[in-house]
Design a protein that fits this description.
Blueprint: H1 5-10, E1 23-33, E2 39-48, H2 50-60, H3 70-83, E3 91-95, E4 98-100, E5 102-103, E6 109-113, E7 116-125, E8 133-139, E9 146-149, E10 156-159, E11 166-170, H4 174-180, H5 187-191, E12 205-210
């Protein structure tokens, strides 16, 4: 039971490669700036599609009462927390062109409402991130198995004082991405998409530019 959710949410390890998503989630992300003028944490909320949610319900409903009890929800959160660690919880942080690692959440809180699974958790940059230069924050699955989407620009926000920094939501144009990366579109990419990080270029992101 503890391993059942892993292939459903990330297609990792021995799970075959998929060229298109099988799991869908609507997301919200808050980039939190602390009193010292550094990016302290990112708060995530994911709401999964009803098909995937029903699959999780079946897998984790050990009491067989067609609902997830608190201890069953906690088990879902535990499995997801363990499964997504190697993927930095699908979180992308870039500071002045350099990738920044992620410190994972202590716990992933899980709820089930109106037939949909919800997850709430917080991650932190693994190094200090002062408000300097250009930073970007996004969410994507490098295996392309899970599509995590921000439906509205208002789902990507900055909390805290950012001074003269400017922020904007960037939604890459797929045609432009493809045109700029034609040489990367090899047969190997289509046969084994998880061997590269190409999906990152298509991901919606929040950019923060500071003088």
């Amino acid at each position: 039971m503890k391993l059942a959710l892993a292939p459903l949410i990330l297609a990792a390890g021995s799970v075959p490669a998929f060229a298109h998503p099988h799991v869908f989630a609507e997301a919200r992300m808050e980039v939190v700036v602390g009193d010292k003028g550094t990016v302290d944490e990112l708060r995530h909320v994911w709401r999964f599609d009803e098909l995937f949610s029903s699959t999780v319900l079946v897998e984790f409903d050990t009491s067989a009462n067609l609902k997830l009890e608190p201890e069953e929800l906690a088990e879902v959160g535990k499995v997801v927390r363990e499964s997504l660690a190697e993927f930095d919880y699908y979180t992308s942080i870039v500071s002045n062109g350099k990738d920044v690692g992620v410190i994972g959440p202590d716990v992933i809180h899980v709820d089930f409402k109106d037939g949909q699974l919800l997850m709430f958790f917080t991650v932190r940059p693994d190094s200090a991130m002062p408000l300097d230069g250009t930073m970007s924050f996004g969410v994507y699955d490098p295996t392309m198995y899970t599509a995590i989407d921000f439906l509205n620009d208002s789902d990507l926000v900055v909390e805290g004082q950012t001074g003269s920094c400017e922020n904007a939501v960037v939604r890459p144009d797929p045609d432009e991405v493809l045109a700029q990366n034609q040489q990367s579109l090899t047969e190997a990419f289509f046969e084994n998409p998880e061997s590269n990080d190409f999906s990152k270029f298509f991901a919606t992101r929040l950019e923060l530019k500071c003088a």
